[in-house]
Design a protein that fits this description.
Structural class: alpha+beta
Largest sheet: 4 strands, antiparallel
CATH topology of the largest domain: f41 fragment of flagellin, N-terminal domain
Number of strands: 13
Order of helices and strands: HHHEEHEEEEEHEEEEEEHH
CATH superfamily of the largest domain: f41 fragment of flagellin, N-terminal domain
Helix content: 40-55%
Strand order of the largest sheet: 8-9-3-13
Number of helices: 7
Strand content: 5-15%
Shape: rod-shaped
Distance between the termini: 19 Å
Radius of gyration: 45 Å
CATH class of the largest domain: Mainly Alpha
Length: 428
């Protein structure tokens, strides 16, 4: 029917043109973004699956980076242990050198000084080696958890590479005690007071070493007592033993604290000494001795008071140390001590090797984990691509088709708009 009020053909052409134009716009958007799904209306279910896959992929990729960081951390720790290995080997070399009988005591003292320095360096490395502030070599307690993109973690246990952890605490091998607490304000402070007669003090280390100290009645300062003890220890009745070793030495010294106070320190000459007693013998039984060694009025009893002294390197009061005295520890000051040190250092090397190997196992495991995570991430990205990415060939065909339909629609809309003009010819 020819009509001029309603142009049905134009409306129909415009509707088809709109659909073709919308399809053309969708194809252009997809080709421009590279994505088949640009909004939820494109594919609601596909969008939900894609976002979950993207999240899983991001977690796996970060897990792979976590594992790489874990390897870097373990490489840092393992590298520090390689340096410790060099120090332990040097310590064992020094112990072997000191174990032979062709060196003098003075030479062994020099060897022992380097021996102790190597142990101290191991202690420093164990405490100073850190990765992002994390230390793993100074305690066997705890572990580092490495999250690798799954619900499980790879745990790396801490190892104790300190001197105590390796059982290589060093010392001078001598029995040594020092005044307890803060000490004395000055070396002129009165530390020993007795009257009524002379006193003999026998300071005995071990079973043989005796310092026979004779004091006249009166008061003694810290400095005077130190000099009196050293006068006796430097002038024993026998100056050399049967093997020609020196028996004279300086037994007493004064140690200044950080606070500026002073302490008396007594040290044995013999590295094998394991006990210490201080006995008194007074001119009369009524004489009372009071001061640095304690208070005693019964002639002949020990004056060593554990409330007055402490072990030189201990934190508590006096106690007998059967292992060799307060300053005792791993040392190479004698052939016997050096032989013991050889076995101890050998055990320390084994302990260190086991710990170092455990880090190696973890690094290999982390490398394997990285490979698995990368494969999983790659496969997830491939699956996500099939859901989300546009198929360019198919979309280009759709674009071409919709372009042709749009052009045809525009032409037909132009023709339809001219149809009412035909009715005008009948009105003329």
């Amino acid at each position: 029917m020819l009509a001029i009020k309603n142009n049905i053909m134009a409306g129909n052409a415009a509707r088809h043109l709109g659909k073709a134009y919308d399809s053309l716009a969708t194809s252009v958007e997809r080709l421009a973004s590279g994505l088949r799904i640009n909004s939820a209306k494109d594919d609601a279910a596909g969008l939900a699956v894609r976002e979950l896959m993207r999240a899983d992929t991001a977690v796996l990729q970060q897990g792979s980076r976590n594992a790489s960081d874990g390897i870097s951390m373990l490489q840092t720790m393992e590298g520090a242990m390689a340096v410790m290995d060099d120090n332990l080997i040097r310590m064992k070399e020094l112990a072997e050198q000191a174990a032979t009988g062709s060196y003098s005591a003075a030479q062994r003292i020099i060897m022992n000084a380097e021996f102790a320095e190597m142990a101290s360096e191991i202690e420093r490395i164990a405490g100073a080696t850190a990765f992002n502030g994390i230390t793993m070599l100074n305690t066997a307690t705890g572990s580092v958890q490495i999250h690798v993109g799954t619900t499980s973690t790879i745990d790396v246990a801490n190892v104790d590479m300190t001197k105590s952890g390796l059982s290589i605490e060093t010392g001078d091998g001598q029995w040594s005690i020092m005044t307890l607490d803060a000490g004395y304000a000055a070396i002129t402070s009165t530390v020993l007071d007795f009257s009524g007669g002379n006193y003999d003090f026998d300071v005995t280390f071990g079973s043989e070493e005796v310092i026979d100290l004779s004091l006249t009645s009166g008061q003694y300062t810290l400095d005077e007592l130190k000099d009196a003890i050293n006068s006796a220890s430097l002038n024993p009745a026998t100056m050399y033993d049967a093997d020609g070793n020196e028996l004279f030495y300086q037994a007493a010294s004064i140690v200044e604290t950080d606070a500026g106070n002073y302490k008396l320190k007594l040290t044995a000459r013999d590295t094998a000494s394991t006990t210490l007693t201080i006995d008194m013998a007074a001119a009369t039984a009524t004489t009372v001795a009071d001061g640095i060694f304690g208070t005693d009025s019964a002639n002949g009893e020990s004056l060593l008071d554990d409330s007055k002294f402490e072990k030189a390197i201990a934190t508590g009061g006096w106690e007998e140390d059967s292992a060799g005295g307060a300053g005792a520890g791993l040392n190479i000051l004698s052939t016997a001590a050096a032989v013991t040190a050889l076995a101890t250092i050998g055990s320390a090397i084994s302990t260190k090797d086991a710990a170092r190997a455990s880090f190696g196992y973890k690094m290999n495991r982390l490398e394997s984990t990285i490979s698995i995570l990368d494969i999983q991430s790659e496969n997830l990205m491939s699956a996500e691509s099939r859901i989300s990415d546009v198929d360019v060939a198919t979309e280009m065909a759709t674009l071409t088709r919709t372009q042709v339909l749009s052009q045809a629609g525009i032409s037909m809309l132009a023709q339809a708009n001219s149809m009412p003009q035909m009715a005008l010819t009948l009105l003329r």
